[in-house]
Automatic annotation (TrEMBL):
Keywords linked to the UniProt accession: Antimicrobial, Bacteriolytic enzyme, Disulfide bond, Glycosidase, Hydrolase, Secreted, Signal
Domain SLH: 373-436, 437-496, 497-553
Compartmental location: Secreted
Physiological role: This enzyme has both lysozyme (acetylmuramidase) and diacetylmuramidase activities.
Any GO MF annotation of the entry: lysozyme activity
Residues spanning the signal sequence: 1-28
Protein name: lysozyme
Chief localisation class: secreted
Region (Disordered): 29-53
GO cellular component: extracellular region
Catalyzed reactions per annotation: Hydrolysis of (1->4)-beta-linkages between N-acetylmuramic acid and N-acetyl-D-glucosamine residues in a peptidoglycan and between N-acetyl-D-glucosamine residues in chitodextrins
Source organism per UniProt: Kocuria dechangensis
GO biological process: carbohydrate catabolic process; cell wall macromolecule catabolic process; defense response to bacterium; killing of cells of another organism; peptidoglycan catabolic process
C-alpha cells in the first residue's frame, strides 16, 4: 500500500500564502450581549447520558454536546480517538481523514472546540492554519466538536458543512442533530456523512442505516447529497480484507440503495492513493461528486481514477475553520451557481466526471423573451417585485447604487450602510460627530463615521461590550425589526401570546419588535409562515421596509 505523500510548500509560496491569509473576524451579533442567561434553546435531544442542543446566544447559533448529569461539555479520551466505538464507552468513532490524523491531532480534536470562536490559539502554524485556497469555503465536523459557534464559522467565511451522522451499522453521532440544525440556522448549506466499514455489513444495509439516521437528501437548496466516506480502514487491514472487485461491488451496493431511496447518487469522500490501490483504479463512480482528501499542498495534483478534478477538496485539518483550534476545512471547486446545483439537482454533473445516467438531455434554446422595460438600475428591471420601493429609495437618496449602475438587490446591507440609510431617512439632520470615536474599530474619516455616531446617539444602533461597532457586519432581520421599532419611538405594543411566525418563539430575543413589524405592515414574513430572523437583511427588502416605515411614521 502506497501512503499518500506529505508535501511541503516551497518557502516562497508559503510566504505568499501567509501574506494573503485573511484575518478571521470575531463572532458577531447585532446587539451587545445581555448578561449570560445560557441563551435560548431552539432544539434539544438526549442520547444516553449526552444532551445535544442548539442555542441562540446573543444572536449567535451555537451547538453543544454535554453530559446530562453535570451539564459540562462531553469529554473524550485522546488515546481512544478513532477507536471502534464500544457499547457503553464514550467514543466518536472515526472521522473524515482519519488516516491522516496524528496523536497531536487527537489531543486537539478531542478538546471539543469552543463556543466563543474567533480567537486563534497560541502555537503558530503548527497548531492552526489560516491559509485557504480560492473558492467557496466550508468545513466538516463530527461528535468530537462538542461546541460549535456556527455564526462565527459563517462570519469567518464558511458557506457549507458536512456533519458526521453514522458509522458502519453500529454508531449514530449524538451530536448530529444539533450540528446539522445549527449549521442550517446559521445560513449554511449542509449535508450528512457516513463513515463506511465494509467489513461489518453490506453496502445497502449501511445506506439504509445512514438514511434512517439523518443521511437523506431533499431538493430544498440547503441540503448537500449524503457523503460516503471511503478511506483506509482505521480498525484493521487497509482495504477491509476485500479484493478490489469486492470493494467496488460494496460501494455500488451502497450507491444503488442510496439512489433508490433518495433519488440521487451520494457523493464520495476519499484519497487518491487509497482509492487507486483498494479499488484497483476503478473509474466506475465518476458520476458521483468527488470530495477529495489531500493535505500539505497548494493545489491537488493526483486524483482518484475516473475524476479529473474535485468538487470539494478537504485541504486542511488544522483550520482556518472549526474555531478556535482549527479543524477540517474544505473548499468547493466551482461557482456559487454550481454549488446550488449540487444541492438541488439529482442529476448534478461532477466538475471532474460525467453526468449520472438518466440525466435529461440539454433543453432546446428557449425562445427569446420579450424585452422587459428598463428599471432604475441595470440589475433592477421594471418587473422586479420591489421596483417601486427601490426607485423611491434612489430618488430620496436613502439607498443608492454603485458606480457601475447596479443596485445589487440581493446583497446584504451592512451595519454602517444601515446607519447611513436611517440618517438620510431622518432628513440628514444637523449633527457634529465626536472628534474621538466611540468605537475602537471606527476611525475619524472612515466612510459613514458621522452617520454611525448619529445612529448611536439616537439609540438606534449600539456596539459590543468590547468597544467595537463591526461596521461591515450584515444586519440580521431580527435586529432590523428592533432598529425600526426604536426609530418609531418604541411605541406601546403588546406582543401576541402566540407567535405569528413558525420559526420565532415568544421568548426569543426581539420577539416583540418582530411581531410589531408584522402588525405595522412593514414586514409580513415568508409565505411558508417563517420570519427567518437570523438571515441577513437584503438591500431590496430593506428598501421595502423603509418605504413602508416612512409611509406610516
Amino acid at each position: 500500500m502506497k501512503a499518500p505523500p506529505h508535501l511541503t510548500l516551497p518557502a516562497a509560496l508559503t510566504a505568499a500564502v501567509l501574506a494573503l491569509s485573511t484575518l478571521l473576524p470575531a463572532a458577531a451579533a447585532d446587539e451587545p450581549p445581555a448578561p449570560d442567561t445560557g441563551g435560548t434553546v431552539t432544539s434539544s435531544a438526549t442520547t444516553g447520558n449526552l444532551v445535544s442542543e442548539v442555542k441562540e446566544v446573543d444572536g449567535e447559533i451555537i451547538s453543544t454536546l454535554t453530559d446530562k448529569d453535570t451539564g459540562e461539555p462531553a469529554t473524550f479520551d485522546p488515546e481512544r480517538f478513532g477507536e471502534l466505538p464500544a457499547e457503553g464507552a464514550l467514543s466518536g468513532g472515526a472521522v473524515m481523514g482519519q488516516s491522516f490524523k496524528t496523536a497531536e491531532d487527537a489531543e486537539r480534536i478531542t478538546a471539543g472546540g469552543a463556543a466563543s470562536g474567533g480567537e486563534q490559539p497560541a502555537g503558530g502554524a503548527a497548531a492552526y492554519s489560516a491559509w485557504r485556497p480560492v473558492g467557496i469555503q466550508g468545513l466538516d465536523v463530527s461528535t468530537y466538536q462538542t461546541s460549535m459557534n456556527w455564526t462565527a464559522e459563517y462570519q469567518a467565511g464558511a458557506r457549507f458543512a458536512y456533519v458526521k451522522a453514522t458509522e458502519g451499522n453500529y454508531y449514530k453521532s449524538p451530536a448530529f442533530n444539533a450540528q446539522y440544525s445549527g449549521s442550517y440556522q446559521a445560513g449554511m448549506i449542509r449535508g450528512a456523512y457516513h463513515f463506511a466499514n465494509p467489513e461489518v455489513s453490506s453496502g445497502a444495509a449501511q445506506a439504509d442505516y445512514f438514511i434512517d439516521n439523518g443521511g437523506g437528501w431533499s431538493a430544498d437548496g440547503r441540503t448537500l447529497p449524503g457523503l460516503l466516506d471511503m478511506e483506509k480502514n482505521p480498525y484493521g487491514e487497509s482495504c477491509y480484507n476485500m479484493t478490489p472487485a469486492q470493494l467496488v461491488s460494496w460501494i455500488r451496493d451502497f450507491s444503488n440503495r442510496y439512489k433508490a431511496r433518495t433519488g440521487r447518487l451520494p457523493a464520495i469522500y476519499t484519497g487518491a492513493y487509497w482509492w487507486n490501490d483498494c479499488t484497483g483504479n476503478s473509474t466506475a463512480f465518476n458520476d458521483h461528486p468527488m470530495h477529495l482528501a489531500s493535505y500539505f499542498i497548494s493545489t491537488p495534483a493526483v486524483y482518484p481514477s475516473g475524476w479529473s478534478r474535485y468538487d470539494i477538496w478537504q485541504y486542511s485539518d488544522t483550520g482556518p475553520f472549526v474555531l478556535p483550534a482549527g479543524g477540517d476545512s474544505n473548499v468547493f471547486g466551482g461557482t456559487q451557481a454550481q454549488l446550488t446545483d449540487l444541492a438541488t439537482n439529482p442529476y448534478y454533473k461532477p466538475l471532474g466526471g460525467r453526468a449520472p445516467s438518466g440525466a435529461p438531455a440539454p433543453a432546446a434554446p428557449a425562445p427569446v423573451a420579450p424585452s422587459v422595460p428598463a428599471g432604475p438600475y441595470k440589475d433592477v428591471s421594471a418587473a422586479n417585485q420591489f421596483v417601486r420601493e427601490i426607485t423611491w429609495a434612489r430618488d430620496r437618496k436613502i439607498l443608492t447604487g454603485w458606480t457601475d449602475g447596479t443596485f445589487r438587490p440581493l446583497n446584504s446591507i451592512n451595519r454602517d450602510a444601515m446607519a447611513a440609510a436611517m440618517y438620510r431617512l431622518a432628513g440628514s439632520p444637523a449633527y457634529t460627530a465626536p472628534a474621538t470615536s466611540e468605537f475602537t474599530d471606527v476611525k475619524p474619516g472612515q466612510q459613514f463615521y458621522k452617520e454611525i455616531h448619529w445612529a448611536e446617539s439616537r439609540g438606534l444602533l449600539t456596539g459590543w461590550k468590547d468597544g467595537t461597532f463591526r461596521a461591515t457586519t450584515p444586519i440580521a432581520r431580527d435586529a432590523t425589526a428592533a432598529l425600526l421599532y426604536r426609530a418609531a419611538g418604541s411605541p406601546r405594543f403588546t406582543a401576541p401570546s402566540v407567535s405569528p411566525f413558525t420559526d420565532v418563539s415568544t421568548d426569543q430575543r426581539f420577539y416583540k419588535e418582530m411581531t410589531w413589524l408584522k402588525a405595522s405592515g412593514i414586514s409580513t414574513g415568508w409565505t411558508d409562515g417563517s420570519f427567518r430572523s437570523l438571515n441577513p437583511t437584503a438591500r431590496d427588502a430593506m428598501a421595502a421596509f423603509l418605504h413602508r416605515f416612512d409611509a406610516r411614521f
